[in-house]
Write the structure tokens for this entry.
Amino acid sequence: MTTQLTTFKRTLLGTAMAVAVCLTGCQGAAVLTNAKTASVEQQSALIQMEDLFDKAQISRVKLSKDGRFLVFLKTLNGANNLFIVPKGGKASEAVALTQLKDPVDSYAWSSREGELFFFKDHQGDENTQLFSLKFDVNDLQKAPKITKLTTNPNAQFEFIQQLSEQPQTLVVKANHSDIGRLDVYHLNADTLKLKSVHTNTLFFADEYINEQGEVVLGLVKNKDNTRTLYRKNNGQWHEVLTTLQGEDIDFYHFNKETNTALVSANIEGRDKEQLLSLNLSNGDIQPIHQDPKNESDLEKVILDDNGAPYLVTYYGDRLRNYPLQDEAKQQLAVIESQFSDEDVDILINKIDHEKGHWDISITSSVQPRRRFVYEAHTQKLVDLLNKAPKIAPELLSPKKTIYYTARDGEKIQAYLTLPKQNAQNLPTIVLPHGGPWARDHWAYDSDYFNPIAHYFANRGYAVLQANYRGSTGFGKRFTLLGERNWGTGHMQHDLTDGVKYLVEQGIADKNRVGILGASYGGYAALSGAAFTPDVYKAVISYVGPSSLITLVESFPERFRPYLGDWFKAVGDPLIEADRQDMASRSPINFVDDIKAPLMLLQGANDPRVTKAESDNIARALYQAGSPVKYYLAKDEGHGFLKRENKLASIRAMEEFFAQHLGGRMSNNVSAKTAEQLAKLEVDISKL
């Protein structure tokens, strides 16, 4: 139930502050558990489960500020750790900078030589802490010096930026002083001194912080799902405007001289978020760019060195770039020409205009992203340690974009992944995304479950990923259609109608349909079991809430000032009418209606969807005599990050769906994975 600001804006397992809480094995012969699939599928090789989370796969490659080194994340000790290699070196030559058993979540290069910063929580508790890491630039084999920069283990710290004029100073947000409030601090990475620079008494959900590390703009998410924009002037905060319900504003740049802000917003009657120039003195708005296809909200903006728009990106069913300056148009054309024979999307992550370096990602639906630096002065690509994927792309079917019409006439965009050799009368898995204020994307590794969709397609399933109503990215109207439609309304109907469409097309066998989801997707899975019990024959809820009431009541204190979206879309349990409505949409209250076998996966340290959500429905199903399996990872939070737990969870899913839907399953699994799965299984009779 989260969203996190990432390359694709907001996703399933991220930090709630950004959006106020949305949510090796041996390969043996296949066991063909259904005769209908045997004739066409027995010649299709099973991909190995372990290859989904290949230990050799690297991610988040970043070039150091001085251009000398590459750092990336790779699995070591079962978790993501930092590795370093000189630019031009091979990934196989990289040296481990960290050897942690709890994963590094992310990192950032410092502007100071031989230094970077990394960020991690403890076993998924989301109390992220900040660390500095200093290495010897002349001897990478020498053990680095790692220093924990933050001292409050009960607070969540978010790295914002490093000051260019004072590189020892980091700008961070944290609920350090007050657990229910996110303030802004300057953290001295040398002395570890934390200095408060903005006490967030107005409860800004988003801020614009200038190059000096000062908060100059702030956005409040009001309880009625409006937004209020504030501007600081002469030390005082002044209200600039308040939006209508469901409208939003994202900051990109602020010009102090002209008192104008460059924003992405859907205000003043706009449905899709557009790039706008907002005069903070008189409220005048000047449109700069909107989606030429009118399909999607503005996804990303790249600025030039003067803060002027250089390139914009939109994401309908696929990613689209639009250059706004002649130089951008010329350079983008050169980049595109180098991938003209491939079916890929080109994502511009960032541009160093001074050096002429474009950091780009090349994404496909059938293989992990490749990273390059495009050097504008030579018009050449610098390979950032790309390697052949462990799972050969030719074993996978390209993900298809489909559209279907819901029961009330609304058009729903979705992605469909099919087995390589068969597309008729298939066991089918509905895979709703989390959030719900997020969306699914086309690229292979743009979302956690995209590779898993391919995995199950390889096992003989059709996999449907629908951007149901309430999803973001398709305009304000579409998102707001999800309000008070959780569980029994449009959001759930869109999934049910997707199943109906696939059955009508002859793709899905209506007697072999399952549903799997995480976070909100887990809630949708439970709702499918409770409210449409004849649709699904197997249900898996992964960190999904069973009660909307206890979900909202259990949110950590630091979430509460940012819950306007929730109260408007889901309800406020302190209001009796809302509470009754929330109860009517809570699967825990309809256990007697559930027919399908059910599986639960949960992280014990999850602060968003607490362990109680899975405990309660597991206990209720057990007492009702309904078939239920429950797996609990004691060292995880809102989603499994450790490799052993990931593998065990996928094995559990594979076995479960094979048993109840008739897909294929490997008959060999490593002893280590089998042992880990046994460790995770909960004896529900003892709950």
